[in-house]
Amino acid sequence: MANVSTRLLGVNDPGLQLAEDLMTGADAIAAFMFGDATEANRRRVYHSADKLGLPCFKLGGTLCARRSTILSWIEKQESAA
Q: Which of 11, 12, 34, 72 could share a disulfide with 41, CB 3.0–4.6 Å?
């Protein structure tokens, strides 16, 4: 059987595992971006996704994002400022 690699050829860390890079749910994204998953921070995630272009996608009805993609997006926001 062939070996299947789950390695992400990502922006910031080419050795990062896909399972480590993928965040599922607004709670996980809020904790990553803002340090905790309070209701206010979850709302900030949804607002950022809807109005500010936060790079995310839905799997079923669950909001998902990649850490590497969000870090790249933040870097672009910083350089544009």
A: 34
DSSP 8-state class, residue 52: I
Mean pLDDT taken over the chain? 86
pLDDT band per the 50, 70, 90 thresholds, residue 15: low
| Sign of the torsion angle spanned by Cα atoms 38, 44, 50, 52 | negative
The model scores a pTM over 0.85: no
CA distances from 12 to 20, 35, 37, 38 (A): 13, 20, 24, 27
Tokens 């272009």 sit on residue: 53
CA distances from 50 to 11, 33, 45, 64 (A): 23, 16, 9, 13
Distance CA 34, CA 45 (A): 9
Tens of pLDDT, residues 46-75: 999 999 999 999 999 999 999 999 999 999
